[in-house]
Amino acid sequence: MRREAIREYLASALWAMPTAAVVLALIAGAGVSSIRIDPASPFAVLVFQGTSDDARSLLISIASTIVTVIALVLGLTIVALQLASTQFSPRLLRSFLRDIPNQLTLSVFVATFAYSTAGLYTVGVASGQRIEDFPRIAVSGALLLLFVSMVMLVFFVHHLAHSIQIDQVMRSVERGTLRVLERSFAEGDPDLRVPEPPRGAVALPAPRSGYVQAFHVEAFVAALSSRGLTARIVPVVGRHVVAGTPVVWVWEDDGARPPLQEALTELRRTLPTMVRVGYERTLEQDIAFGIRQLADIASKALSPAVNDPYTANQAVDHLATVLAALAERRHGPRAVRDGHGVVRVYVPARDFGYLLELALGQVRRYGANEPRVVRALLRVCGDVAGFGDESHRAVVRRYVETLLDDVRRMVPQPADREPLLAEGAALLASLP
After folding, report:
1. What span, in angstroms and rounded, lies between the C-alpha atoms of 169 and 164?
2. CB atoms closer than 10 angstroms to residue 314
3. Which of 102, 174, 342, 417 could form a disulfide with 318 if both were Cys (CB 3.0 to 4.6 A apart)?
4. CA–CA separation, 78 and 107 (whole Å)
5. So which domain of life are we looking at (predicted)?
6. Which residues contact 262 (CB under 8 A, 6 or more apart)?
7. Coil, strand, or helix at residue 240?
8. What gap in Å lies between CA 202 and CA 205, rounded to an integer?
9. What is the pTM of this model?
10. Is residue 90 predicted with pLDDT exceeding 80?
11. How far apart are the C-alpha atoms of 7 and 237, rounded to whole Å?
């Protein structure tokens, strides 16, 4: 759990990759500086041909140029973050920070600066005296890094211009959400009845306030099994918890008496390896967070200040892809068993109705008076219904009925309202 938390943090830390690049640049510079090429070698024409003063002037020029370029790149990055936050959704900032091309570009620039600046300590100077002998191949390496930096600058501008396009933003969120669905989604049992904590149950409090980012119950199940205990997790992934509130209820198998203090001590020690609480939501296991991002884009596009129904329709189309993938799976709580087949942990989860409402509920409320948005919602409902079973179609049916009620109330013009109601009625009739 701790390794995953560190990896998750470093993936969105804008300083991590550039810091590693600086270290690698210094190591590479030290190694290349020890290489000497014979003037008679055929490779001698490929190395720097100037004097030591020329080499120092070149390194100073490269370092000063790269500092200016770094300031430009950081400025453009801040502009992109501000644009994404105000125009799309503040929850998209984390995706921009995790963008590998942005981190790689900044890493190349700071590596070039560190390499060139460190070269001033060795080129043309020895024991405080000026010398003519210097590592020419190392200076040539600085020139090579300068050209690479210029190529990366052009690539960065190209990538940044595409990354702030709304189509690319929504595509990235959709792909990230589907990736979470494939890697970490655990199917539940909608018919499972999660027991209420019995009289002898004891609560294990949340160690800190924040959002539940991930569950890993394997070690916790082993600890429960060795003590003959059963547990019920209270929050779902993505839910905010307050320090000191119950995060897990634990009881003896018979539920009549509290667990022994020794067992509770062991479970409290194991709890941080089972649940991770952080200050922000992540896409590690939280599928609802990806849906929330796309729903935010659609809601903001439908606000009176923006009034962009087409962008809302695009967001709904991307949500359709996610909902179709969710409709193929079973949702609900799950029971985790130990090696003997005994249920040890009940893990809560969001059902399909919640996810559909999260994805399309705000769009319905904000866009039910716009015929194009209504048609997009009806189209999505028809597509999603074709992927699920009867329980999923029942959820879709309830949503469509609510949408049509909103259309009757909010679309005053019969020429706009009646075709929408007819299309909705046809969709309801097609649902088995």
Report:
1. 6
2. 20
3. 174
4. 16
5. Bacteria
6. none
7. strand
8. 10
9. 0.84
10. no
11. 18
